[in-house]
Amino acid sequence: MDSFGFSTAQTLQALSNLLNPKLDEDDEDEDCGNVRSSAQLGPGHIGQRSKTEAPKEEEAKTLKDIWGEGEVAADDDDPRPRPEYEIILKQSVGTEDLFLGLSGKDPSSMCCEALLIKIKLPDTKASEVVLDVKEKFLDLQTPNYKLGLHLPHPIHHRDGKAQFFSEREELEVTLLMNRPMDVINLP
Question: How far is CA 150 from CA 86, 114, 140, 153, 154, in A?
């Protein structure tokens, strides 16, 4: 090593100081007591340190919040149970699709045109059902049940159809899916 112009003791001392710098007691984290000081360093230790006060607990809580309390709808206090429901994707299939495969449709969900939502509503009459459908949300309310359902695909909310079957005590809602890119994506 002396041939390069460095003494061995100086090189080892410089390397030791580089790997184990002496930190002030207030700079050390209490959680990292058993960890070597070089492992405690990170990108935040580069440059001059500025002394800043930690935010108060209330301020820290509000900084992490995504929405304010007024922006969130509170449905937790509604005692009505959520009814059982099933979402089914539907396709319009003709003989040219089934036997010849001329339209390029396949059995995947990409080729579906409508959502069929079957909702079981025992002990409910058709006149008691209040249904509101938005582009991505279905809201159903009866005296006994409440269902707020986020839809898996955007739909044409004005072109839907709902039918209540009294013998099965079931509501079927058929909604046409809004897929503006289907013209480009599908053959």
Answer: 13, 15, 12, 9, 10
Instruction: Give the whole-angstrom CA distance, residue 187 versus residue 183.
Output: 8
- The amino acid present at 172, given as its one-letter code, is E
Residue 121's CB: how many other CB atoms inside 10 A? 23
**Token pair 């080729």 in the structure block, residue:** 111
Across-strand partners of 114? 90, 176
Q: Can you give the C-alpha Rg of the chain in angstroms?
A: 32
Nearest partner of 114 among 168, 166, 151, judged by Cα: 151
Q: Return the closest-CA partner of residue 179 out of 135, 137, 142.
A: 135
The candidate with the shortest Cα–Cα distance to 85, out of 134, 139, 160, is 139
Q: What is the pLDDT of residues 75-110, one digit of tens each?
A: 567 788 999 999 999 988 778 777 777 777 777 777
How many other β-carbons are positioned within 10 Å of the β-carbon of residue 142?
20
Which are the contacts of 126, defined by CB distance < 8 A and separation ≥ 6?
164, 166
Q: In which element (H, E) is residue 117 found?
A: strand 114-120
Cα dihedral 147/153/154/157 (nearest 10):
-50
Q: What is the pLDDT of residue 1?
A: 45
